[in-house]
Design brief:
The structure is a single chain. This protein is mainly alpha-helical. It is built from 29 helices and 8 strands. The protein has 3 domains: 228 residues, no CATH class; 138 residues, no CATH class; 221 residues, Hypothetical protein af1432 (Orthogonal Bundle), CATH 1.10.3210. It has a 4-stranded mixed β-sheet. Strand 4 and strand 5 form a beta hairpin.
């Protein structure tokens, strides 16, 4: 029994996740709708033997395989062709031609005005050819579109094919500009230079073209219209053929794929359970592989699962009341909330899985899934900083616009025209956008319920008018200035290595709040030459210095700072030594010194952000002691401090790479040089 209890205690976190997983799957399956199978039999070309039949609910008419294939062939025939524009080739060609033309003109007997005219013509030829590009002959043979898509650096534009230049077209241009026989020797030389040096810079991008084609093919609509509830489908005695057959087949498919019956109830529940279990298993595996720190935190895993259940519950309630209101539910709040507390990638991944699950509940599932995934992607891409309210308003407008455009496109596809569009849905999308604005108070509620910290909270905490930071500025002004400087260095470093810059900046502002207890024992706060450490032993001095970490944690808890900020206070010195007083003790007592009196209690940094703070704190503090902070001295200082921390194992638990350390060192060197650069001496 004791072994069993010990085993349970050791694996309690994993057991809790298993329980949460099973409970979530059960709840989601329980929320799925119930119904019956399609009870009528029919055959193509035979009369409908039952009573007049009306649509029991809204459903889409499925396209036949031939119609789908036709759509795919149309996409293949009209899909964009992508070409790459090589700017480096243009630069090389211009340099080579300019140099050789200059040499040719230098040795010629032409007047200066004639030389300038020839140079002007050469420039016009080069600029004309490379305005849209010079395509090689092999790729030119693949041109079968009147318009192609040209990728020029980070820009993509559609251009007419006839604007590209090729060999024969270039010959005509050169002859038109320079002239034809008889030519002067100089003109002939320049023509030869142009023919020899002009090189193709536009080439066919097979990978991008195929990727675009695959994306377009994946968006093929499998529906061609919509049958509304209570719409007459077929009369008794009508022949089952053509449009009627297509509608009946679509309706049968709807019943078999989305509605349950008593005969196969258990089997379908079993099938749904497998699918839902797989979806949540994928979510857990994703978190475990890519977000291990979240996976190890049961509160965060519970929070993610809770949000998924909440969205499914809302959609289920709306569908049971009236499915036409399904687009009022602000599903995009899910990726928004997860992005606010974690990151965009996790938010989008969870959103996509949730929308796929909702496809079992809502009518017209393909349309719903497409619209919601597109809206989720737009949400992730447009809202970069949630704590900036203007960003949220602008993004909500963009999301609503995407809903409008996508729904309009779907309606046209289904009906074949724009006459049957349900304009009422545009009001639903607008209400959806308004409901999305509720995400800010929702984030605040979640912070209080689950003890999490969002960017909005970090923004509030990083305000220097905050009560605790004002107190730090009053009691320990030197420490406050040091914290500001460290915050700037840490934020710049975090941005370069794609860490959470807002989190590390906030942590840096609070990392030394423990110094408020005894501010005069820290050199940055000593306004006179009186040093209270002169009257203490090295051990006592070290104890006071070390205690600022412990006092800082106590003060942070007393002021209800989040655990994520307290982590920075705990770890910013790791398990390093109070080196100055350690060396003083060595001078007094020899080499046999007990390091435990001079060592910070730790723990060592356990995240990229806390590691960045440790580095920036040490570097900033050490740089203040430099008498002549030259560029070389600053470089050596940064290298020495980071190397020492690395060798002492301070970064063993932090997910920071050697490459990221090199980037951080580079940032710190640059920033310190900007801080300590020499200024000219002003005249008196």
């Amino acid at each position: 029994m004791k072994k069993l209890i010990n085993k349970f205690l050791v694996n309690h976190s994993l057991i809790y996740k298993l329980f949460l997983y099973i409970l979530t799957v059960f709840l989601i399956v329980y929320l799925f709708p119930k119904g019956g199978q399609f009870k009528y039999e029919f055959q193509k070309g035979k009369p409908w033997q039952y009573e007049n039949y009306y649509a029991p609910f809204n459903f889409s008419i499925q396209k036949s395989k031939a119609e789908i294939e036709k759509d795919k062939q149309q996409i293949i025939a009209t899909s964009k062709q992508f070409y790459d524009y090589n700017e480096q080739t243009v630069v090389e060609v211009k340099n080579n031609i300019t140099q050789k033309v200059a040499e040719a003109l230098l040795n010629s007997n032409l007047f200066e005005s004639q030389k300038k005219n020839l140079i002007k013509k050469v420039d016009e030829i080069i600029n004309t050819i490379y305005e849209y590009g010079y395509i090689n002959e092999a790729d030119r043979l693949q041109l079968n579109r009147p318009v192609i898509t040209l990728k020029k650096g980070n820009k993509i534009q559609d251009i007419e094919t006839n604007k590209l230049y090729y060999l024969s077209k270039i010959n005509d241009l050169i002859n038109a500009k320079i002239g034809v026989d008889p030519l002067t020797q100089t003109e002939s030389t320049i023509q030869t230079i142009l023919f020899d040096e002009l090189k193709p810079n536009v080439s066919f991008n097979n990978e991008l073209t195929n990727k675009n084609l695959e994306e377009n093919l994946s968006k093929v609509s499998y529906t061609k219209g919509l049958v509304s509830v209570n719409q007459r489908i077929i009369l008794k005695g009508d022949i089952v053929e053509g449009e009627k057959l297509a509608i009946l087949n679509s309706l049968k498919h709807e019943f078999e794929s989305q509605v349950w019956s008593k005969s196969n109830y258990n089997w379908i529940v079993f099938g749904y359970t497998i699918l839902v279990a797989l979806a949540f298993l994928m979510l857990l595996l994703f978190i475990r592989k890519y977000r291990l720190e979240i996976f190890e935190n049961n509160t965060k895993v519970t929070f993610i699962f809770f949000n998924v259940i909440l969205i499914v519950l809302l959609i289920t309630l709306v569908v049971k009341y009236d499915a036409k209101y399904v687009y009022i539910v602000p599903i995009v709040t899910l990726p928004l909330v997860l992005k606010a507390f974690f990151d965009a990638r996790l938010g989008l991944f969870t959103h996509v899985l949730t929308v796929l699950l909702l496809g079992f509940i809502v009518p017209n599932s393909f349309e719903f899934i497409f619209l919601q995934i597109i809206a989720g992607i737009v949400t992730i891409l447009t809202i970069s900083e949630l704590y900036k309210r203007a960003n949220l308003f602008i993004s909500v407008l963009q999301i609503t616009l995407v809903y409008y455009i996508a729904y309009l496109a779907f309606s046209i596809i289904q009906e074949g025209n724009a006459k049957s569009i349900i304009w009422e849905k545009f009001v639903y999308f607008a209400l959806n956008g308004g409901a999305t604005l509720f995400v800010l108070p929702l984030i605040y509620i979640f912070e209080k319920l689950f003890g999490l910290v969002s960017d909005e909270s970090l923004k509030e905490l990083s305000n220097t008018n905050n009560k605790l930071l004002r107190e730090l500025a009053e009691k320990a002004p030197g420490t406050f200035q040091h914290s500001l400087q460290v915050a700037n260095l840490a934020e710049a470093s975090a941005n370069e290595v794609h860490a959470n810059s807002m989190l590390v900046r906030t942590g840096a502002l609070y990392h030394d709040i423990g110094k408020m207890e005894n501010p005069m024992y820290f050199t940055e706060n000593q306004s006179t030459n009186v040093n209270p450490h002169n009257e203490l032993t090295p051990k006592d001095s070290a104890k006071i210095i070390i205690n600022h970490v412990i006092k800082g944690v106590e003060l942070a808890k007393k002021n209800h700072l989040p655990d994520r900020i307290i982590d920075f206070i705990r770890t910013h010195h790791g398990t390093t030594l109070v080196y100055y007083f350690y060396k003083m003790e060595e001078k007094i007592g020899g080499d046999d010194v007990d390091t435990s009196y001079f060592q910070y209690p730790g723990p060592i940094p356990f995240s990229k952000e806390t590691a960045i703070l440790m580095i920036c704190d040490s570097v900033e503090a050490a740089s203040r002691s430099l008498k002549e902070p030259t560029a070389q001295v600053l470089d050596d200082l940064v290298e020495k401090i980071v190397t020492k921390q690395l060798e002492s194992g301070q970064f063993m638990n932090a997910d920071i790479t050697f490459k990221e350390l090199q980037i951080i060192k580079k940032v710190l060197k640059k920033k310190l040089k900007n801080i300590y650069h020499l200024r000219i001496e002003y005249p008196e």
